[in-house]
Description:
Layout: E1 7-12, H1 20-33, E2 37-41, H2 44-49, E3 53-55, H3 83-95, E4 100-105, H4 107-118, E5 122-127, H5 143-164, E6 167-172, H6 179-188, E7 192-194, H7 204-216, E8 222-227, H8 233-244, E9 248-252, H9 264-282, E10 288-293, E11 296-301, H10 302-307, H11 314-324
Parallel strand pairs: 1-2, 1-4, 4-5, 5-10, 6-8, 6-9, 7-8
Antiparallel strand pairs: 2-3, 10-11
Helix pairs in contact: 1-9, 5-6, 6-11, 7-8
Amino acid sequence: MESKVRKIGVLTSGGDAQGMNAAIRAVVRRALDMGIEVVGIRRGFYGLLHEDFMELKASSVSNIIQQGGTVLFTARCLEMLELEYQKKAADICRKHGIEGLVVIGGDGSFMGAHTLSKQGINVVGIPGTIDRDIACTDYTIGFDTAVNVVYDAVCRLRDTSESHERCNVVEVMGRHCGEIAIWSGIATGADYVIIPEVPESNDFDKIVADITENRKKGKMHNIIIVAEGVEGSRDLAKRIQEATGIDSRYTVLGHIQRGGRPTVRDVKHASMMGSYAVELLAKGGDNRVVAYVDSKYVDFDINEALAMKKKPSLDVWETNNKISSY
């Protein structure tokens, strides 16, 4: 394939996600394989506006595929909401001969990419977010690793919870999206999974009644997983202890969910999406986002992707309710 672009840039934006480095590596290696130069842009759109660039060669991305985080660093950049800075970013791209840009991040990053497309810079987005909250794709880079981090942590907490006959409330990431809570809930056999998409999941009276009844049946420890968007994990543990007399503790897993070596699944998807993104740019693709749908890698117009509404995995949540609260 003869490429329509000779030089591209790649950046990571917003929250970091395990697998971003694998995506960067794939972008660089596939581009070089097609005779395309690659510029690494440090610190996302902020770095673009400040011309924080580095040439990326094959050796530049050696031994990063297994690393968490992002070697290009990441940052949020509110300036990209303003037309003045959108034009400035596009002018900087043209100044450095950057004809296409790969943006690895979430919805906010794709909005920034779209503004550059309107200014004449070809852009392709790759969904990199541990929350799995981008509606156009069945998978986002970092999600599998984050869920496995929660799984490992809860398995450890269960050991001590069972030893002390406690109730443990575990807060996981997911401000607006409960996917991490849902998936880790069913994987760990959590008694309850409380998510922002289902307000009635935070039914305190039912939780207390079930815990009390199940104690009578011989269940002597409990795990409750709460998405951070619900808020109040500390208060929930306190209220449960006050209402039941059961020693209750809360644990906020926080940013450990973002760190660590990515799983095979994350590396595989990141590598495939990175390569796909370069091929789109090489064909003259613009304002596109790479997605994984029905076991295939496809792409959507960014506007179309941003307009889609994410549906939570309520089938998984409901199944966990049926098999775990005993």
